[in-house]
Specification:
The structure is a single chain. Helix content is 48%, strand content 9%. By secondary structure, the chain is α/β, with parallel strands linked by helices. The protein folds into two domains: 316 residues, Alpha-Beta Barrel (TIM Barrel); 60 residues, no CATH class. The chain has an eight-stranded parallel β-sheet with strand order 8-6-4-3-2-1-10-9. A two-stranded antiparallel ribbon has the order 5-7. The chain is globular, with a radius of gyration of 23 Å. The two termini are 14 Å apart. The structure holds 5-thio-alpha-D-glucopyranose and manganese (II) ion (2 copies). 5-thio-alpha-D-glucopyranose binds next to strand 4.
Length: 388
């Protein structure tokens, strides 16, 4: 029986804002002290995590003097080195301060956009100083409640202008840093532009250098949009655009719950882990979630340990699924190929077109034949329930 004990090789990461979440919500005050970055680094290393991620202001207060900034960063770097913890990803807080109430890169006020660029350039410098190789953009305030107020076409142009500006900033500084864009359909704005991973993938192709931009899909966000998360991640993966991933859990039809990974929709979580592991996704497995508001600090560490443990348990279930002779036999039957037909369809040629046109295909028989998916799905559930 595996012990499901995480090690840094598993590449599990948490944001400073995840274990640092004090349990505030729109209806209630904090219920616990915010766990400091230094304590978090120490505890996460004990729990077997690989790294921590951060927004600029998770570490350095927005109004810190340059001297305070340097002191805080030096202290944090010492803690990272002492505990062997990495910072693979960094990002900018472009949503908390009141200046961003109507967006950052999509604000119709050029002063706000300039401030957002200034803040992001500083935050990129900080991320790179801490060793980050991925830079996430989550445009939480990039949206609207009053669509008559802001032209959505202009908003997209401003967004593109800012992303291009920052792409060149990274190149100009010789930084080894890639961008990962994170979508969300709504909350905190009534509607957020570029609402899903699919929107982001299309937007990225319009940038000056799409090669340095990928996506950071989040379980909860795609679920809020009513979408199949695994399909969105698969599309990004197949395009070579899965630069980062935010793992958590979410009940359908609700606000952004950011629940402990695997705590809802176990089959979806299993299929997600299967996708990441089968295709050997090389990046960090980042948990963008937080402990229930009912918890104290002990509960927060239970939450962190739980996210990692559940991932490893699901990874073991994937191994069993892939090694199960009955399941694999069934899959071989379901997915049986036909080299001749597949050769004809692989690419167009007049000969192939003629050959396909001349095929006689058993429409009635194929329409009648069962696909045996009931059996396969039941076997999948049995693997998940520990019955095989
Ligand atoms: C915020 C948001 C997340 C984003 C983080 C990065 S901040 O917690 O809910 O989904 O990934 O900006
Ligand atoms: Mn996220
Ligand atoms: Mn979320």
């Amino acid at each position: 029986m595996p012990d499901y004990q995480p090690t840094p090789a598993d590449k599990f990461t948490f944001g400073l804002w995840t274990f640092g979440n004090p349990g505030r919500d729109p209806f209630g005050e904090p219920v616990r002290e915010r766990i400091s970055p230094l304590r978090g680094v120490q505890k996460l290393s004990q729990l077997g995590a690989y790294g921590v991620n951060l927004h600029d202001n998770d570490l350095v207060p927005i109004d810190a003097t340059p001297a305070e900034r340097d002191r805080i960063v030096a202290e944090f770097k010492r803690a990272l080195a002492d505990h062997g913890v990495r910072v693979p990803m960094a990002t900018t807080n472009l949503f908390s301060d009141p200046i961003f109430k109507d967006g950052a890169f999509t604000s119709s006020d050029p002063k706000v956009r300039a401030f957002a660029l200034q803040k992001t350039m500083r935050a990129i410098d900080l991320g790179v100083e801490l060793g980050a190789e991925t830079y996430v953009f989550w445009g939480g305030r990039e949206g609207a409640e009053v669509d008559a107020a802001k032209d959505p076409v202009s908003a997209l142009k401003w967004m593109r202008e800012c992303m291009n500006f920052l792409i060149y900033y990274v190149k100009d500084n010789g930084y080894n840093l890639r961008f990962a864009l994170e979508a969300k359909p709504n909350e905190p704005r009534g509607d957020i532009y570029l609402a899903t991973t699919g929107h982001m993938l299309a937007f990225i192709e319009t940038l000056d250098d799409p090669s340095v931009c990928g996506v950071n899909p989040e379980v909860a966000h795609e679920n809020m949009a009513g979408l199949n998360f695994v399909h969105g991640v698969a599309q990004a993966l197949e395009m070579g655009k899965l630069f980062h991933i935010d793992l958590n859990a979410q009940k359908p039809g609700r606000f952004d719950q950011d629940l402990r990974f695997g705590s809802e929709d176990l089959k979806g979580a299993f299929l997600l882990v299967k996708l990441l592991e089968d295709y050997q996704y090389p990046g960090p497995r980042h948990f963008d979630a937080h402990a229930y508001r009912t918890e104290d600090e002990d509960g927060v560490w239970e939450f962190c340990a739980g996210c990692m443990r559940t991932y490893l348990i699901l990874k073991e279930k994937v191994r069993r699924f892939n090694a199960d002779p009955e399941i694999q036999g069934l899959l071989a039957e379901i997915r049986a190929g036909d080299a001749h037909l597949e050769g004809l369809m692989q690419s167009f040629s007049p000969d192939n077109a003629r050959a396909i046109a001349a095929l006689s295909i058993d429409r009635i028989g194929l329409g009648r034949a069962g696909r045996r998916y009931e059996k396969l799905d039941q076997l999948t559930i049995e693997v998940l329930l520990g019955a095989r």
